[in-house]
Design brief:
Radius of gyration: 26 Å
CATH architecture of the largest domain: 2-Layer Sandwich
Number of strands: 20
CATH class of the largest domain: Alpha Beta
Structural class: alpha+beta
Strand content: 25-35%
CATH topology of the largest domain: Beta-Lactamase
Number of helices: 10
Low-confidence stretches: 137-150, 245-258, 326-336
Order of helices and strands: EEEEHEEHEHHHEEEHEEEHEEEHEHHEEE
Mean pLDDT: 81
Shape: elongated
Length: about 450
């Protein structure tokens, strides 16, 4: 018998499965199933959503047949199945439900398009459908690379080394995306950090997209990324259609006066892999990667990136701890001031109602990073101060930092990168561990509204 592992591409979700059942009188019913989840070499689970007739048939007659198709060669296979049970809770149900919930949240079908149950079947046999294809199978079968299987341990070791060698959170994030590109071929990746103050995920770094999207927010529970974060479930989505792209208007209904920062993403993405970064039940952030190839991410990516995800979460948690209050030497970013004739005159406006900061009528940042920037700029303007410490920021109650896990380091990274993109005349330059300088070229008028 053909093994399920030999036709694993058929279960990526690129081509829907055709499921055939019949009632006690042998009257057939044919429908489509969006998911076929392989449990082991003898069992699969199919997603039950709107299949009332299928459910009645299985209650009367447990025998069924499913036709699956390889999205690379287009060869079809028929699975002879025996219905065993329906699971409506537990790890299997949660895993299958997460994918459907993510798609539903992205398309505005949350609560309507949902998983009712995971139907578990025993696989009695697998038959290759002869004559399904006319002529030889496409040569793409031979072009499938297995290099990942040969190099995943080396890649895992390399990525782990880059994470452990990082001296600060800034370096950790950049090293991570560079290593994933070099050793796993992930060209389009981003890392979002959970912000407990807002209940949102904030983009800190991205690679391979047209725009960085630093500062873009995703509400937990919204879209693919937010659903993966909210359910703490790894998501591997294949065959994305146009209406399943990452939500670009992530704050459309929030009512905020600050303009949206578009979330980075490929307009023609066909697959996505989203990994929640957690320590226990605590959400640290999300690692997301996407590709134009619908078959880009396989099961082995899930296993190895799940391991890497644990290390990333621990690394971020360590870097965002209060240990950065201590003094010590770090690599100082040398930034040459602008020549005198090129030094600009800027107007910075702070909106008290939502802590949004604009520079020359262009949105820069908001929330806690906005309050931090306004504090720094007022101290610079009123007292001519240019050096600050993490400790004083933590002790300033007006900033509203959480008392235990304040993520101050990630907020400063976000602020530093937004300034670099939108207002390079203002810079936050590390001096030593827990100490940084504010550098301002030209003049800045401060306006509070």
């Amino acid at each position: 018998m053909i093994a399920l592992s030999e036709i694993s591409r058929c279960f990526q979700g690129v081509i829907p499965c055709i499921l055939c059942t019949s009632d006690a009188r042998a009257v057939p019913n044919v429908t489509y199933a969006s998911q076929v989840h392989v449990l082991d070499e003898r069992h699969v689970a199919l997603s039950r959503q709107f299949f009332n007739k299928t459910s009645r048939n299985l209650d009367e007659n447990p025998r069924a047949a499913a036709e699956v198709q390889d999205p690379v060669t287009f060869q079809a296979y028929r699975l002879s199945l025996k219905f065993l049970r329906t699971e409506k809770s537990g790890p299997l149900f949660d895993r299958m439900s997460a994918r459907i919930d993510a798609i539903a949240a992205t398309t505005g079908m949350a609560g309507i398009f949902r998983l009712i149950g995971a139907d578990v079947f025993e696989v009695l046999g697998i038959e290759r459908l002869e004559g399904f294809l006319h002529g030889p199978a496409p040569a793409a079968e031979e072009a499938i690379s297995v290099s990942g299987f040969r190099s995943e341990l080396r890649g895992l070791h390399h990525v782990s080394d880059r994470i452990n060698a990082a001296a600060c959170l800034d370096h950790l994030l950049d090293n991570l995306l560079e290593a994933l590109d070099a050793y796993f071929g992930f060209r389009h990746t981003m890392v979002l950090i959970a912000d407990e103050c807002t209940g949102r995920l904030v983009t800190l770094v991205s690679r391979g997209f047209g725009s960085s999207g630093v500062g873009a927010e995703v509400e937990i529970g919204q879209g693919l990324i937010g659903t993966a974060a909210g359910q703490r479930q790894l998501l591997r989505i294949t065959g994305l259609e146009a209406n399943l792209r990452y939500s670009r208007a992530v704050r459309r209904e929030s009512g905020t006066s600050a303009p949206e920062i578009p979330l980075p993403g490929l307009p023609d993405a066909q697959s996505a892999l989203i990994i929640p970064l957690t320590i226990g039940d605590r959400l640290i952030g999300v690692l997301a990667t996407e590709d134009r190839d619908p078959m880009r991410f396989g099961e082995w990516h899930e296993a190895f990136l799940d391991i890497i995800g644990n290390q990333i979460a621990l690394g971020i948690d360590r870097m965002t701890g209060r240990g950065d209050d201590a003094e010590g030497t770090v690599a100082v970013i040398e930034t040459a001031p602008a020549p005198a004739e090129a030094r600009p005159h800027r107007t910075m406006t702070y909106y008290v109602n939502d802590d949004a900061v604009f520079v020359d009528d262009e949105y820069l940042i908001r929330n806690v990073p906005g309050r931090i920037l306004w504090k720094l700029m007022r101290s610079w303007s009123r007292e001519a101060r240019t050096q600050f410490t993490n400790r004083e920021l933590r002790l300033d109650e007006s900033l509203g930092l959480p008392p235990i896990k304040d993520n101050l380091e990630s907020r400063l990274i976000l602020l530093r990168r937004r300034l670099s993109e939108k207002c390079p005349a203002i810079r936050l330059v590390p001096l030593s561990r827990g100490r940084f300088a504010l550098q301002v070229d030209g003049t800045v008028d401060l306006v509070e509204r």
